Each structure stands twice: as C-alpha cells, then as structure tokens.
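Researcher: We plan to redesign the surface later, but first we want a full-length starting point. Tokens attached.
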C-alpha cells in the first residue's frame, strides 16, 4: 500500500506524524511525506521520501497537492490538523484520507481552521494522540477517533553527561519551543530557576544564547537539545505549553510548569493543570519570583508528590494507548473503507 503523509513545515506539526509514518514504513508500506523543506532532514533520515509539493514552503494548499496525488496515486492520505488543503485535495481526488492530530483539539480562533468544521471533509477519521482524560469532551463524543499513543520524537543525538550522570539535585528542563520564545521571557524564567538548588538545562530555540546575559554555573544553555531523549531524565519541565512538549512530559510522568503564550497553549495549560499534573502562570502573572515559587511547589522535596502522581497516572493512561505499530497495521482498513 502507498501512503502519503502531509504536514505543515514545522517541528510542532511534523514530528507528531513521524512515529506513525515510520511504523507504516516498517509494516512494508511505501511512504511519502509532503512538507516544506524546513523539516526535510528528519523525514529523509527516517526513509520517509519527503518532497515539497508545488510552491509550498510552510503550508500546503489543495492546488499544491493535487498534481502530486495524480503522480503518486496513493491508497491513503494521512493529513495533519493544520492542513485542511491536503484533506480537500484528497477528497476531490477520491483518495481516502485520515486527519492526524498533534494534541488536544485546539480551540477556535488561534489561526488554524478546526478540522471538525470543514464540511467537505469533517467526517473523516481522526488519529488522536491526546489521552482521553485530557481530550475535548465534545470531540471525544462526536468524532471517529483512531487512538494512538503519543511518542515523542526529536532528532537523535547523544545526551551530555549531566543528563544521566548527575548529582542529587533535581534536573529542570526549560524550553519555550520554536515559535513563541522571546529573549525577555527566557531571561525571566532563567533568573527564577537559577535561584533554586537544581541543575537547569535550557533549550534556547529561536533566542540566540548570547542575548541571555550572564548564566549561573548550574544553568546550561543550548540552542537545541534532543528533547525526546532528555525528558525521561528530568524532574520537571518548565515550558510554553506547546502540544509536543506537553504530551512528551506527560508520557514520562513528569510534572510541568506551563507559561502559555499563544495558539493552543492556553487550552493545554488549562487541561493539564485541571488534571493536577501541572501548574500554570498566565502572561500577566509571570515574573522570576513566581516562576521560582511555582517550580518549588512542583519539586518532590517541596511537597510536589500530588502533581507527580497525577502526571504518572496520565503516563500510565498513555502507555495503554495503541502503539504506532498497532495503528499502522490497521491503515489498510481505512484505505479500503474510503
């Protein structure tokens, strides 16, 4: 069977699809991946035959994909939530298609069109990587869900020795993702975390590390870290509330301090904090002292056991969800059903 995956050309939208695409490849299917050049390297490294359709660099529109569908003649298209154009192109070409989510169903008004509101393709099945306890209730009740365990993905790289061979101090991971980080917020977060008796590792992302000023000895700043490999070693994640980091931390049972900035991050922060696995600080509440105090409350030695227990309960829920290999085995059913 030939399967075409399609996503926006960003880490947050492409990486959630890679585990299923790799599992489909391992199951013997011929896999192609339509996305802009920004994410080509990890797709190519996994043998997923990436290509840039039409003039697409970030977003893929229906007219970009239509000639590629005629060329490849796939049996199934797996299109992520951020690409309604790919869904519409597959529908018009008569090719069965499946939506693929990147987390909790995002709220209206964040700059993406809700897949449940596009009449032409709203009834298609959805690969849902959000644990049911955190998913939108209405979405759970009305959509054709294909439950899939969220598997964190990042480009493999060796971890420094401080990640696995460290002293008794807690390890805190700070990231503001690839789209929303600012120098001011990152400096504020580092200032708060630096007051704690903890090892802190910072993924600076879009912020040049040289803009962060003097850094304490127990704070390590890197432009990028292999997040999927790092998360099992950390005691706490302080981050922006992006879906990838949120689910990655939950998958390993780590509590979180969420500093939402935009997009779906406020909804994620609401859901995870309501479940007891996180605390949140809204933009007008953020300062170095507040970040330090909330972080202390989440660390085990300061009474954060309840938050850790809640995070571990969600990790157990995630572990029970079907694996990418199990879902890949079912993909021919959806091709035939279409």
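Model: Full-length starting sequence:
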């Amino acid at each position: 069977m030939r399967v075409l995956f399609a996503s926006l050309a960003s880490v947050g939208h492409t990486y959630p699809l890679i585990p299923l695409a790799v599992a489909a490849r391992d199951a013997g299917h011929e896999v192609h991946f339509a996305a802009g050049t920004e994410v080509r390297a990890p797709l190519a490294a996994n043998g997923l035959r990436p290509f840039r359709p039409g003039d697409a660099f970030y977003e893929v529109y229906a007219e970009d994909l239509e000639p590629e569908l005629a060329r490849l003649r796939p049996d199934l298209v797996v299109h992520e939530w951020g690409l309604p154009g790919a869904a519409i192109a597959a529908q018009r070409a008569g090719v069965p298609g499946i939506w693929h989510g990147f987390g909790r169903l995002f709220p209206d008004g964040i700059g993406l069109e809700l897949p449940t509101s596009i009449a032409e393709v709203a009834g298609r099945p959805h690969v849902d990587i959000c644990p049911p306890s955190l998913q939108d209730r209405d979405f759970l009740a009305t959509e054709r869900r294909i439950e899939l365990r969220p598997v964190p993905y990042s480009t493999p790289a060796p971890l420094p020795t401080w990640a696995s061979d460290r002293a008794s101090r807690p390890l805190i991971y700070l990231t503001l993702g690839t789209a929303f980080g600012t120098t001011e917020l990152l400096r504020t977060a580092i200032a708060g975390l630096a007051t704690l008796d903890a090892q802190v590792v910072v993924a600076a992302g879009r912020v040049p590390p040289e803009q962060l000023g003097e850094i304490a000895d127990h704070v390590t700043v890197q432009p990028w870290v292999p997040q999927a490999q790092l998360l099992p070693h950390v005691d706490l994640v302080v981050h922006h509330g992006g879906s990838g980091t949120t689910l990655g931390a939950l998958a390993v049972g780590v509590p979180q301090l969420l500093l939402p900035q935009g997009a779906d991050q406020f909804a994620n922060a609401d859901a995870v904090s309501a479940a007891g696995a996180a605390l949140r600080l809204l933009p007008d509440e953020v300062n170095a002292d507040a970040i330090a105090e909330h972080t202390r409350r989440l660390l085990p030695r300061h009474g954060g056991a309840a938050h850790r227990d809640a995070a571990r309960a969600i990790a157990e829920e995630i572990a029970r969800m079907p694996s990418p290999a199990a879902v890949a085995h079912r993909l021919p059913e959806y091709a035939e059903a279409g």
